[in-house]
Amino acid sequence: MPDPTVLAFDTSAAHCAAALLKAGRVAAALVEPMQKGQAERLLPMLEELLAEGNASWSDLTSIGVGIGPGNFTGTRIAVSAARGLALGLGIPAVGVSAFEATAFGRARPISVAVPAPRDHIYVQSFDASGETEPRLCPRADVGIADAMSLCLEPRDLVIAIAQVAARNHKSAAERPAPLYVRPADAAPPREAPPAILP
Amino acid sequence: MTAPLTILGLESSCDDTAAAVVRHAEGAAPGILSNVVWGQTDLHAAFGGVVPEIAARAHTEKLDYCIEQALAEAHLSLRDIDAIAVTAGPGLIGGVLAGVMCAKGLAAATGKPLIGVNHLAGHALTPRLTDGLSFPYLMLLVSGGHCQFLTVHAPDRFTRLGGTIDDSPGEAFDKIAKLLGLPQPGGPAVEVQAKSGDSGRFALPRPLLDRPGCDLSFSGLKTAVLRTRDDLVSEKGGMTKQDRADLCASFQTAVADVLAEKSRRALASLSAEPLTAFAVAGGVAANQTIRYALRDVADEANIRFIAPPLELCTDNAAMIAWAGIERFRLGLTDDLTLAARPRWPLDEASAPMLGHGKRGAKA
Protein backbone atom coordinates (compact mmCIF):
# COMPACT_ATOMS: atom_id res chain seq x y z
CA MET A 1 0.00 0.00 0.00
CA PRO A 2 1.65 3.26 -1.07
CA ASP A 3 1.59 6.20 1.31
CA PRO A 4 -1.56 8.26 0.84
CA THR A 5 -1.23 11.30 -1.41
CA VAL A 6 -4.09 13.70 -0.80
CA LEU A 7 -4.99 16.80 -2.77
CA ALA A 8 -7.27 19.17 -0.87
CA PHE A 9 -8.86 22.46 -1.90
CA ASP A 10 -11.33 25.01 -0.64
CA THR A 11 -13.15 27.93 -2.27
CA SER A 12 -15.82 28.48 0.38
CA ALA A 13 -14.90 32.14 0.95
CA ALA A 14 -12.92 34.89 -0.81
CA HIS A 15 -9.98 32.64 -1.68
CA CYS A 16 -8.67 29.72 -3.69
CA ALA A 17 -6.73 27.47 -1.30
CA ALA A 18 -5.10 24.12 -2.00
CA ALA A 19 -2.72 21.73 -0.28
CA LEU A 20 -0.93 18.53 -1.24
CA LEU A 21 -0.26 15.98 1.48
CA LYS A 22 2.25 13.20 0.86
CA ALA A 23 2.52 10.51 3.52
CA GLY A 24 1.10 12.89 6.10
CA ARG A 25 3.43 15.79 5.29
CA VAL A 26 2.51 19.01 3.54
CA ALA A 27 4.38 18.80 0.21
CA ALA A 28 2.94 22.06 -1.13
CA ALA A 29 0.26 24.60 -0.26
CA LEU A 30 -1.06 27.61 -2.16
CA VAL A 31 -3.51 30.33 -1.17
CA GLU A 32 -4.73 33.15 -3.37
CA PRO A 33 -7.20 35.67 -1.98
CA MET A 34 -9.90 36.55 -4.52
CA GLN A 35 -13.44 37.91 -4.40
CA LYS A 36 -14.39 36.17 -7.64
CA GLY A 37 -12.81 34.10 -10.37
CA GLN A 38 -12.33 30.92 -8.31
CA ALA A 39 -14.02 28.84 -11.02
CA GLU A 40 -11.48 29.97 -13.63
CA ARG A 41 -8.46 29.77 -11.31
CA LEU A 42 -9.03 26.56 -9.32
CA LEU A 43 -7.96 23.82 -11.76
CA PRO A 44 -4.88 25.65 -13.15
CA MET A 45 -3.85 26.35 -9.56
CA LEU A 46 -4.19 22.67 -8.65
CA GLU A 47 -1.94 21.76 -11.57
CA GLU A 48 0.64 24.29 -10.36
CA LEU A 49 0.41 22.84 -6.87
CA LEU A 50 0.97 19.29 -8.13
CA ALA A 51 3.99 20.44 -10.13
CA GLU A 52 5.40 22.19 -7.07
CA GLY A 53 4.88 19.06 -4.98
CA ASN A 54 6.43 16.79 -7.66
CA ALA A 55 3.25 14.85 -8.10
CA SER A 56 0.83 14.11 -10.91
CA TRP A 57 -2.91 13.49 -10.95
CA SER A 58 -2.35 9.74 -11.13
CA ASP A 59 -0.34 9.76 -7.88
CA LEU A 60 -3.35 10.89 -5.85
CA THR A 61 -5.07 8.42 -3.54
CA SER A 62 -7.89 10.73 -2.47
CA ILE A 63 -9.32 14.23 -2.81
CA GLY A 64 -10.29 16.40 0.15
CA VAL A 65 -12.71 19.23 -0.45
CA GLY A 66 -13.98 22.03 1.77
CA ILE A 67 -17.78 21.89 1.89
CA GLY A 68 -18.28 25.07 3.89
CA PRO A 69 -20.38 26.43 5.34
CA GLY A 70 -19.65 29.57 3.41
CA ASN A 71 -20.44 31.14 0.10
CA PHE A 72 -22.98 28.87 -1.63
CA THR A 73 -21.52 29.33 -5.10
CA GLY A 74 -17.98 28.97 -3.77
CA THR A 75 -18.66 25.65 -2.07
CA ARG A 76 -20.37 24.37 -5.21
CA ILE A 77 -17.34 25.31 -7.32
CA ALA A 78 -15.01 23.17 -5.19
CA VAL A 79 -17.46 20.30 -4.64
CA SER A 80 -18.32 20.01 -8.35
CA ALA A 81 -14.64 19.99 -9.28
CA ALA A 82 -13.89 17.40 -6.60
CA ARG A 83 -16.65 15.11 -7.83
CA GLY A 84 -15.46 15.44 -11.44
CA LEU A 85 -11.87 14.69 -10.41
CA ALA A 86 -12.92 11.72 -8.27
CA LEU A 87 -14.95 10.25 -11.12
CA GLY A 88 -12.13 10.84 -13.60
CA LEU A 89 -9.39 9.42 -11.35
CA GLY A 90 -11.42 6.62 -9.80
CA ILE A 91 -10.48 7.70 -6.27
CA PRO A 92 -12.67 8.86 -3.37
CA ALA A 93 -13.48 12.50 -2.72
CA VAL A 94 -14.04 13.36 0.92
CA GLY A 95 -16.09 16.38 1.95
CA VAL A 96 -14.72 18.12 5.04
CA SER A 97 -16.59 20.95 6.76
CA ALA A 98 -14.88 24.04 8.09
CA PHE A 99 -16.06 22.90 11.52
CA GLU A 100 -14.39 19.48 11.30
CA ALA A 101 -11.24 20.98 9.84
CA THR A 102 -10.98 23.57 12.61
CA ALA A 103 -11.72 21.06 15.37
CA PHE A 104 -9.20 18.58 13.94
CA GLY A 105 -6.43 17.69 16.37
CA ARG A 106 -7.72 20.00 19.10
CA ALA A 107 -8.94 19.19 22.59
CA ARG A 108 -12.66 18.63 23.02
CA PRO A 109 -15.14 19.95 23.94
CA ILE A 110 -14.76 22.69 21.36
CA SER A 111 -17.17 24.98 19.54
CA VAL A 112 -16.27 26.37 16.14
CA ALA A 113 -17.66 29.57 14.63
CA VAL A 114 -17.61 30.29 10.91
CA PRO A 115 -18.54 33.78 9.63
CA ALA A 116 -21.95 34.04 7.95
CA PRO A 117 -23.57 36.96 6.12
CA ARG A 118 -25.43 39.80 7.88
CA ASP A 119 -23.73 39.63 11.29
CA HIS A 120 -24.46 35.98 11.83
CA ILE A 121 -22.23 32.98 12.47
CA TYR A 122 -22.47 29.27 11.78
CA VAL A 123 -21.70 27.23 14.90
CA GLN A 124 -21.03 23.59 15.62
CA SER A 125 -19.90 22.07 18.90
CA PHE A 126 -17.89 18.89 19.37
CA ASP A 127 -17.38 16.85 22.53
CA ALA A 128 -16.27 13.32 23.41
CA SER A 129 -19.65 11.85 22.49
CA GLY A 130 -20.06 13.54 19.11
CA GLU A 131 -21.15 16.84 17.63
CA THR A 132 -24.22 19.10 17.53
CA GLU A 133 -26.11 19.94 14.35
CA PRO A 134 -24.50 22.96 12.68
CA ARG A 135 -26.66 26.05 13.21
CA LEU A 136 -26.92 29.67 12.15
CA CYS A 137 -27.28 32.34 14.83
CA PRO A 138 -26.81 36.08 15.26
CA ARG A 139 -23.26 36.91 16.21
CA ALA A 140 -24.49 38.97 19.17
CA ASP A 141 -26.37 36.00 20.67
CA VAL A 142 -23.25 33.96 21.20
CA GLY A 143 -20.32 34.74 23.45
CA ILE A 144 -17.70 33.87 20.90
CA ALA A 145 -14.86 35.45 22.83
CA ASP A 146 -14.05 32.58 25.18
CA ALA A 147 -15.96 29.47 24.31
CA MET A 148 -15.58 29.58 20.53
CA SER A 149 -12.73 28.86 18.21
CA LEU A 150 -12.87 30.92 15.06
CA CYS A 151 -12.57 29.13 11.78
CA LEU A 152 -8.98 28.67 10.57
CA GLU A 153 -7.29 30.97 8.08
CA PRO A 154 -7.41 29.60 4.49
CA ARG A 155 -3.93 28.02 4.49
CA ASP A 156 -4.40 26.21 7.80
CA LEU A 157 -7.97 25.37 6.82
CA VAL A 158 -7.02 23.61 3.59
CA ILE A 159 -4.16 21.73 5.24
CA ALA A 160 -6.56 20.53 7.95
CA ILE A 161 -9.05 19.51 5.24
CA ALA A 162 -6.31 17.42 3.65
CA GLN A 163 -5.47 15.83 7.00
CA VAL A 164 -9.09 15.00 7.81
CA ALA A 165 -9.56 13.58 4.31
CA ALA A 166 -6.40 11.47 4.65
CA ARG A 167 -7.74 10.01 7.87
CA ASN A 168 -11.31 9.45 6.62
CA HIS A 169 -11.01 8.44 2.99
CA LYS A 170 -11.65 4.75 3.57
CA SER A 171 -14.80 5.39 5.55
CA ALA A 172 -16.17 8.06 3.19
CA ALA A 173 -19.22 6.32 1.80
CA GLU A 174 -20.98 9.44 0.59
CA ARG A 175 -19.85 11.81 -2.11
CA PRO A 176 -19.06 15.32 -0.92
CA ALA A 177 -21.94 17.82 -0.84
CA PRO A 178 -21.94 21.45 0.25
CA LEU A 179 -22.90 22.10 3.86
CA TYR A 180 -25.36 24.95 3.37
CA VAL A 181 -26.89 25.08 6.90
CA ARG A 182 -29.42 27.60 5.48
CA PRO A 183 -32.24 26.39 3.21
CA ALA A 184 -32.51 27.81 -0.29
CA ASP A 185 -34.18 31.21 -0.37
CA ALA A 186 -37.47 30.40 -2.05
CA ALA A 187 -41.06 31.21 -1.24
CA PRO A 188 -44.26 29.78 -2.68
CA PRO A 189 -46.11 32.16 -5.02
CA ARG A 190 -47.94 34.93 -3.16
CA GLU A 191 -50.94 35.18 -5.41
CA ALA A 192 -53.56 32.44 -5.13
CA PRO A 193 -54.90 31.10 -8.42
CA PRO A 194 -58.51 31.96 -9.31
CA ALA A 195 -61.37 29.82 -8.03
CA ILE A 196 -62.44 27.29 -10.62
CA LEU A 197 -66.25 27.29 -10.82
CA PRO A 198 -68.29 24.18 -11.53
CA MET B 1 -12.16 7.56 -43.46
CA THR B 2 -11.16 9.12 -40.15
CA ALA B 3 -11.65 7.41 -36.81
CA PRO B 4 -14.99 8.08 -35.15
CA LEU B 5 -15.19 10.69 -32.43
CA THR B 6 -16.94 9.83 -29.17
CA ILE B 7 -17.84 12.78 -27.00
CA LEU B 8 -19.40 13.03 -23.56
CA GLY B 9 -21.78 16.00 -23.22
CA LEU B 10 -22.95 17.65 -19.99
CA GLU B 11 -25.88 20.04 -19.55
CA SER B 12 -26.98 21.81 -16.36
CA SER B 13 -28.00 25.34 -17.39
CA CYS B 14 -31.61 25.29 -16.21
CA ASP B 15 -33.67 22.62 -14.43
CA ASP B 16 -32.50 19.47 -16.22
CA THR B 17 -29.37 17.58 -15.18
CA ALA B 18 -28.23 15.77 -18.30
CA ALA B 19 -25.35 13.70 -19.68
CA ALA B 20 -25.05 11.97 -23.04
CA VAL B 21 -22.58 10.18 -25.27
CA VAL B 22 -22.61 10.84 -29.01
CA ARG B 23 -20.39 9.13 -31.57
CA HIS B 24 -19.75 10.29 -35.12
CA ALA B 25 -17.55 9.19 -37.98
CA GLU B 26 -17.30 11.63 -40.87
CA GLY B 27 -19.51 10.55 -43.71
CA ALA B 28 -21.79 8.48 -41.48
CA ALA B 29 -24.88 9.37 -39.48
CA PRO B 30 -24.13 10.30 -35.86
CA GLY B 31 -25.20 7.89 -33.14
CA ILE B 32 -26.63 8.90 -29.79
CA LEU B 33 -25.21 6.15 -27.58
CA SER B 34 -26.98 7.46 -24.49
CA ASN B 35 -29.04 10.50 -23.55
CA VAL B 36 -29.85 10.76 -19.84
CA VAL B 37 -32.01 13.68 -18.66
CA TRP B 38 -32.98 14.02 -15.01
CA GLY B 39 -35.63 16.72 -14.60
CA GLN B 40 -36.18 18.71 -11.42
CA THR B 41 -39.87 19.57 -11.87
CA ASP B 42 -40.77 18.09 -8.46
CA LEU B 43 -38.15 20.16 -6.65
CA HIS B 44 -39.54 23.43 -8.02
CA ALA B 45 -43.27 22.57 -8.07
CA ALA B 46 -44.12 24.32 -4.80
CA PHE B 47 -42.58 27.60 -5.95
CA GLY B 48 -44.37 28.21 -9.22
CA GLY B 49 -41.21 28.27 -11.31
CA VAL B 50 -37.56 27.30 -11.36
CA VAL B 51 -35.70 28.51 -8.24
CA PRO B 52 -32.04 29.05 -9.25
CA GLU B 53 -30.57 28.14 -5.86
CA ILE B 54 -32.56 24.89 -5.68
CA ALA B 55 -31.53 24.02 -9.24
CA ALA B 56 -27.85 24.69 -8.50
CA ARG B 57 -27.94 22.50 -5.39
CA ALA B 58 -29.47 19.61 -7.29
CA HIS B 59 -27.06 19.81 -10.26
CA THR B 60 -24.05 19.81 -7.92
CA GLU B 61 -25.13 16.60 -6.23
CA LYS B 62 -26.52 14.72 -9.23
CA LEU B 63 -24.37 15.44 -12.26
CA ASP B 64 -21.63 12.86 -11.58
CA TYR B 65 -24.23 10.13 -11.07
CA CYS B 66 -25.91 11.23 -14.29
CA ILE B 67 -22.57 10.92 -16.13
CA GLU B 68 -22.04 7.42 -14.74
CA GLN B 69 -25.46 6.42 -16.00
CA ALA B 70 -24.82 7.89 -19.45
CA LEU B 71 -21.54 5.97 -19.71
CA ALA B 72 -23.16 2.76 -18.47
CA GLU B 73 -26.03 3.06 -20.97
CA ALA B 74 -23.49 3.62 -23.74
CA HIS B 75 -21.51 0.57 -22.49
CA LEU B 76 -18.39 2.73 -22.37
CA SER B 77 -15.90 3.91 -19.78
CA LEU B 78 -14.23 7.30 -19.63
CA ARG B 79 -11.22 5.77 -21.41
CA ASP B 80 -13.37 5.38 -24.53
CA ILE B 81 -14.31 9.07 -24.60
CA ASP B 82 -12.33 11.41 -26.87
CA ALA B 83 -13.36 14.72 -25.30
CA ILE B 84 -15.70 16.29 -22.76
CA ALA B 85 -18.19 18.93 -23.91
CA VAL B 86 -20.10 21.04 -21.39
CA THR B 87 -22.64 23.85 -21.50
CA ALA B 88 -20.63 26.91 -20.44
CA GLY B 89 -23.61 29.29 -20.75
CA PRO B 90 -25.95 31.01 -21.12
CA GLY B 91 -28.18 29.97 -18.24
CA LEU B 92 -28.68 29.98 -14.49
CA ILE B 93 -25.11 30.53 -13.39
CA GLY B 94 -25.13 28.20 -10.37
CA GLY B 95 -26.08 25.26 -12.54
CA VAL B 96 -23.74 26.21 -15.37
CA LEU B 97 -20.88 26.42 -12.85
CA ALA B 98 -21.67 22.96 -11.47
CA GLY B 99 -21.41 21.52 -14.98
CA VAL B 100 -18.30 23.45 -15.98
CA MET B 101 -16.42 22.56 -12.78
CA CYS B 102 -17.35 18.88 -13.00
CA ALA B 103 -16.24 18.83 -16.65
CA LYS B 104 -12.94 20.50 -15.75
CA GLY B 105 -12.36 17.93 -13.03
CA LEU B 106 -13.00 15.14 -15.52
CA ALA B 107 -10.80 16.73 -18.16
CA ALA B 108 -7.90 17.33 -15.77
CA ALA B 109 -8.16 13.82 -14.33
CA THR B 110 -8.32 12.04 -17.68
CA GLY B 111 -6.19 14.38 -19.81
CA LYS B 112 -9.05 14.56 -22.33
CA PRO B 113 -9.79 17.80 -24.20
CA LEU B 114 -12.44 20.14 -22.73
CA ILE B 115 -14.96 21.89 -24.99
CA GLY B 116 -17.16 24.72 -23.69
CA VAL B 117 -20.41 24.79 -25.63
CA ASN B 118 -22.96 27.59 -25.94
CA HIS B 119 -26.29 26.07 -24.90
CA LEU B 120 -28.05 27.92 -27.74
CA ALA B 121 -25.58 26.51 -30.27
CA GLY B 122 -26.53 23.09 -28.92
CA HIS B 123 -30.17 23.75 -29.83
CA ALA B 124 -29.29 25.45 -33.11
CA LEU B 125 -27.05 22.58 -34.33
CA THR B 126 -29.49 19.81 -33.35
CA PRO B 127 -30.97 19.50 -36.90
CA ARG B 128 -27.50 18.42 -38.05
CA LEU B 129 -27.46 15.69 -35.40
CA THR B 130 -30.97 14.46 -36.19
CA ASP B 131 -31.25 15.07 -39.93
CA GLY B 132 -27.74 15.70 -41.18
CA LEU B 133 -28.81 19.16 -42.34
CA SER B 134 -26.29 21.21 -44.34
CA PHE B 135 -25.52 24.89 -43.79
CA PRO B 136 -26.97 27.46 -44.12
CA TYR B 137 -30.42 27.12 -42.60
CA LEU B 138 -32.90 29.29 -40.76
CA MET B 139 -33.40 28.37 -37.10
CA LEU B 140 -36.18 29.53 -34.82
CA LEU B 141 -34.98 28.94 -31.29
CA VAL B 142 -37.94 29.15 -29.00
CA SER B 143 -37.72 28.08 -25.35
CA GLY B 144 -38.30 29.14 -21.78
CA GLY B 145 -35.37 31.50 -21.83
CA HIS B 146 -34.98 32.47 -25.47
CA CYS B 147 -36.72 33.39 -28.69
CA GLN B 148 -34.72 34.29 -31.76
CA PHE B 149 -34.35 33.75 -35.48
CA LEU B 150 -30.85 32.76 -36.55
CA THR B 151 -29.22 31.98 -39.82
CA VAL B 152 -26.87 29.12 -39.03
CA HIS B 153 -23.79 29.36 -41.31
CA ALA B 154 -21.31 27.15 -39.45
CA PRO B 155 -20.91 25.49 -36.03
CA ASP B 156 -19.47 28.74 -34.73
CA ARG B 157 -21.15 31.31 -36.98
CA PHE B 158 -24.71 32.55 -36.48
CA THR B 159 -26.52 35.68 -37.66
CA ARG B 160 -29.49 36.88 -35.64
CA LEU B 161 -32.37 38.19 -37.74
CA GLY B 162 -34.53 39.15 -34.80
CA GLY B 163 -35.70 38.05 -31.42
CA THR B 164 -37.90 38.89 -28.49
CA ILE B 165 -37.60 42.35 -27.04
CA ASP B 166 -38.98 41.22 -23.68
CA ASP B 167 -40.16 37.75 -22.58
CA SER B 168 -39.74 34.41 -24.27
CA PRO B 169 -42.84 32.40 -25.26
CA GLY B 170 -41.84 29.67 -22.80
CA GLU B 171 -41.84 32.19 -19.97
CA ALA B 172 -45.27 33.37 -21.13
CA PHE B 173 -46.65 29.80 -21.13
CA ASP B 174 -45.34 29.31 -17.57
CA LYS B 175 -46.81 32.62 -16.43
CA ILE B 176 -50.20 31.91 -18.00
CA ALA B 177 -50.28 28.51 -16.30
CA LYS B 178 -49.56 30.21 -12.99
CA LEU B 179 -52.29 32.82 -13.55
CA LEU B 180 -54.81 30.10 -14.30
CA GLY B 181 -53.87 27.74 -11.47
CA LEU B 182 -52.26 25.14 -13.74
CA PRO B 183 -49.09 23.21 -12.82
CA GLN B 184 -45.52 23.97 -13.95
CA PRO B 185 -43.98 23.63 -16.46
CA GLY B 186 -46.72 25.65 -18.07
CA GLY B 187 -46.19 24.67 -21.71
CA PRO B 188 -47.64 21.15 -21.57
CA ALA B 189 -50.33 22.19 -19.03
CA VAL B 190 -51.63 25.04 -21.21
CA GLU B 191 -51.47 22.87 -24.32
CA VAL B 192 -53.64 20.17 -22.70
CA GLN B 193 -56.24 22.76 -21.65
CA ALA B 194 -56.22 24.40 -25.09
CA LYS B 195 -57.27 21.11 -26.71
CA SER B 196 -60.78 21.49 -25.29
CA GLY B 197 -60.92 25.27 -25.68
CA ASP B 198 -62.31 27.71 -28.25
CA SER B 199 -59.37 29.70 -29.60
CA GLY B 200 -61.69 32.34 -31.06
CA ARG B 201 -63.50 33.26 -27.85
CA PHE B 202 -61.10 35.88 -26.49
CA ALA B 203 -59.55 38.51 -28.74
CA LEU B 204 -55.91 38.73 -27.62
CA PRO B 205 -53.29 40.99 -29.20
CA ARG B 206 -50.64 39.85 -31.70
CA PRO B 207 -47.78 42.07 -30.49
CA LEU B 208 -45.41 43.69 -33.02
CA LEU B 209 -47.17 42.25 -36.06
CA ASP B 210 -47.83 45.84 -37.11
CA ARG B 211 -44.09 46.49 -37.29
CA PRO B 212 -41.72 45.26 -39.95
CA GLY B 213 -38.85 42.91 -39.14
CA CYS B 214 -38.48 39.73 -37.13
CA ASP B 215 -38.53 41.07 -33.59
CA LEU B 216 -41.13 39.67 -31.23
CA SER B 217 -42.80 40.60 -27.96
CA PHE B 218 -44.82 38.49 -25.55
CA SER B 219 -45.09 40.68 -22.47
CA GLY B 220 -48.24 42.51 -23.62
CA LEU B 221 -49.92 39.25 -24.53
CA LYS B 222 -49.28 38.02 -21.00
CA THR B 223 -50.85 41.15 -19.55
CA ALA B 224 -53.85 40.78 -21.84
CA VAL B 225 -54.43 37.26 -20.54
CA LEU B 226 -54.17 38.55 -16.96
CA ARG B 227 -56.79 41.27 -17.68
CA THR B 228 -59.14 38.79 -19.31
CA ARG B 229 -58.82 36.49 -16.33
CA ASP B 230 -59.46 39.33 -13.89
CA ASP B 231 -62.55 40.42 -15.86
CA LEU B 232 -63.94 36.89 -15.69
CA VAL B 233 -63.18 36.62 -11.96
CA SER B 234 -64.79 39.97 -11.11
CA GLU B 235 -67.82 39.08 -13.23
CA LYS B 236 -68.56 35.70 -11.67
CA GLY B 237 -66.20 35.25 -8.71
CA GLY B 238 -63.97 32.74 -10.51
CA MET B 239 -63.65 31.03 -13.86
CA THR B 240 -65.19 27.88 -15.18
CA LYS B 241 -63.09 25.07 -16.61
CA GLN B 242 -64.38 26.07 -20.02
CA ASP B 243 -63.34 29.70 -19.48
CA ARG B 244 -59.87 28.45 -18.63
CA ALA B 245 -59.66 26.13 -21.61
CA ASP B 246 -60.87 28.89 -23.95
CA LEU B 247 -58.33 31.35 -22.56
CA CYS B 248 -55.53 28.79 -22.95
CA ALA B 249 -56.58 28.10 -26.54
CA SER B 250 -56.84 31.82 -27.38
CA PHE B 251 -53.39 32.45 -25.89
CA GLN B 252 -51.76 29.49 -27.62
CA THR B 253 -53.20 30.54 -30.97
CA ALA B 254 -51.95 34.10 -30.49
CA VAL B 255 -48.42 32.79 -29.83
CA ALA B 256 -48.62 30.47 -32.84
CA ASP B 257 -49.88 33.33 -35.06
CA VAL B 258 -47.07 35.64 -34.01
CA LEU B 259 -44.35 33.00 -34.43
CA ALA B 260 -45.77 31.94 -37.81
CA GLU B 261 -46.01 35.49 -39.21
CA LYS B 262 -42.52 36.41 -38.03
CA SER B 263 -41.19 33.15 -39.48
CA ARG B 264 -42.82 34.07 -42.79
CA ARG B 265 -41.00 37.41 -42.71
CA ALA B 266 -37.70 35.81 -41.73
CA LEU B 267 -37.94 33.40 -44.66
CA ALA B 268 -38.94 36.22 -47.03
CA SER B 269 -35.95 38.29 -45.95
CA LEU B 270 -33.64 35.36 -46.75
CA SER B 271 -35.19 34.47 -50.11
CA ALA B 272 -31.89 35.23 -51.85
CA GLU B 273 -29.94 32.84 -49.62
CA PRO B 274 -29.55 29.16 -50.51
CA LEU B 275 -31.26 27.95 -47.32
CA THR B 276 -31.49 24.19 -46.90
CA ALA B 277 -34.36 24.27 -44.41
CA PHE B 278 -36.39 26.09 -41.80
CA ALA B 279 -35.67 24.38 -38.50
CA VAL B 280 -37.11 24.89 -35.07
CA ALA B 281 -35.76 23.90 -31.65
CA GLY B 282 -36.27 24.62 -27.96
CA GLY B 283 -38.92 23.50 -25.51
CA VAL B 284 -41.75 25.57 -27.05
CA ALA B 285 -41.20 23.74 -30.35
CA ALA B 286 -42.67 20.72 -28.52
CA ASN B 287 -46.10 22.43 -28.68
CA GLN B 288 -48.05 20.73 -31.47
CA THR B 289 -50.17 23.74 -32.48
CA ILE B 290 -47.06 25.89 -32.83
CA ARG B 291 -45.19 23.13 -34.63
CA TYR B 292 -47.99 22.71 -37.21
CA ALA B 293 -48.27 26.48 -37.72
CA LEU B 294 -44.53 26.69 -38.43
CA ARG B 295 -44.64 23.67 -40.72
CA ASP B 296 -47.39 25.36 -42.73
CA VAL B 297 -45.21 28.45 -43.12
CA ALA B 298 -42.36 26.29 -44.42
CA ASP B 299 -44.73 24.55 -46.84
CA GLU B 300 -45.97 27.93 -48.16
CA ALA B 301 -42.38 29.01 -48.71
CA ASN B 302 -41.62 25.67 -50.31
CA ILE B 303 -38.74 24.93 -47.98
CA ARG B 304 -37.97 21.82 -45.94
CA PHE B 305 -39.22 21.98 -42.33
CA ILE B 306 -37.26 20.28 -39.57
CA ALA B 307 -38.41 19.90 -36.00
CA PRO B 308 -36.26 17.45 -34.05
CA PRO B 309 -38.00 14.77 -31.95
CA LEU B 310 -39.41 16.19 -28.73
CA GLU B 311 -36.69 14.79 -26.47
CA LEU B 312 -34.07 16.59 -28.57
CA CYS B 313 -36.09 19.85 -28.71
CA THR B 314 -36.12 20.29 -24.95
CA ASP B 315 -32.92 20.60 -22.92
CA ASN B 316 -30.63 17.58 -23.23
CA ALA B 317 -26.94 16.74 -23.31
CA ALA B 318 -26.86 14.91 -26.65
CA MET B 319 -27.06 18.31 -28.36
CA ILE B 320 -24.14 19.51 -26.23
CA ALA B 321 -22.07 16.43 -27.13
CA TRP B 322 -22.96 16.99 -30.80
CA ALA B 323 -22.02 20.69 -30.70
CA GLY B 324 -18.82 19.51 -29.00
CA ILE B 325 -18.10 17.18 -31.92
CA GLU B 326 -18.64 20.04 -34.37
CA ARG B 327 -16.34 22.36 -32.43
CA PHE B 328 -13.70 19.68 -31.90
CA ARG B 329 -13.54 19.08 -35.66
CA LEU B 330 -12.81 22.79 -36.09
CA GLY B 331 -10.03 22.57 -33.52
CA LEU B 332 -12.01 24.63 -31.02
CA THR B 333 -11.21 23.37 -27.53
CA ASP B 334 -10.85 25.15 -24.20
CA ASP B 335 -8.33 25.06 -21.39
CA LEU B 336 -8.97 24.72 -17.66
CA THR B 337 -9.61 28.46 -17.31
CA LEU B 338 -12.94 28.02 -19.17
CA ALA B 339 -15.48 30.44 -17.66
CA ALA B 340 -19.17 29.84 -16.98
CA ARG B 341 -21.24 32.64 -18.52
CA PRO B 342 -24.77 33.59 -17.42
CA ARG B 343 -25.18 35.52 -20.68
CA TRP B 344 -23.64 34.58 -23.98
CA PRO B 345 -25.32 35.75 -27.20
CA LEU B 346 -24.76 33.42 -30.15
CA ASP B 347 -24.42 36.33 -32.52
CA GLU B 348 -21.99 38.65 -30.76
CA ALA B 349 -21.61 40.90 -33.79
CA SER B 350 -25.20 42.17 -33.95
CA ALA B 351 -26.33 44.95 -31.65
CA PRO B 352 -27.56 43.62 -28.28
CA MET B 353 -31.36 43.40 -27.99
CA LEU B 354 -31.74 42.48 -24.37
CA GLY B 355 -29.65 43.08 -21.29
CA HIS B 356 -26.75 45.41 -20.74
CA GLY B 357 -24.40 46.64 -18.03
CA LYS B 358 -21.98 44.53 -16.07
CA ARG B 359 -23.51 41.21 -17.05
CA GLY B 360 -23.49 42.05 -20.74
CA ALA B 361 -26.02 41.37 -23.47
CA LYS B 362 -28.47 38.51 -23.08
CA ALA B 363 -29.40 38.34 -26.73
Mean pLDDT of chain A: 92
Number of domains of chain B: 2
Would you tell me the structural class of the helices and strands of chain A?
alpha/beta
Structural class of chain B: alpha/beta
CATH homology superfamily name of the largest domain in chain B: ATPase, nucleotide binding domain
CATH class of the largest domain in chain B: Alpha Beta
Describe this structure in words.
The complex is a heterodimer of chains A (about 200) and B (about 375). With about 200 residues, chain A is an alpha/beta fold. Helices cover about 30% and strands about 30% of the residues of chain A. Chain A has five helices and eleven strands. In chain A, the strands form two sheets. Chain A has a five-stranded mixed β-sheet, with helices on both faces. In chain A, helix 1 crosses helix 2. Chain A is globular. With about 375 residues, chain B is an alpha/beta fold. Chain B folds into two domains: about 180 residues, 2-Layer Sandwich (Nucleotidyltransferase, domain 5), CATH 3.30.420; about 170 residues, 2-Layer Sandwich (Nucleotidyltransferase, domain 5). In chain B, the strands form two sheets. A five-stranded mixed β-sheet of chain B has the order 3-2-1-4-5, sandwiched between helices. In chain B, strand 2 and strand 3 form a beta hairpin. The longest helix of chain B has 29 residues. Chain B is globular and about 65 Å long. The model of chain B has no long low-confidence stretch (mean pLDDT about 95). At the A-B interface, helix 1, helix 2 and strand 11 of A face helix 2, helix 3, helix 7, strand 9 and helix 8 of B. Strand 11 of chain A pairs parallel with strand 9 of chain B, so a sheet runs across the interface.
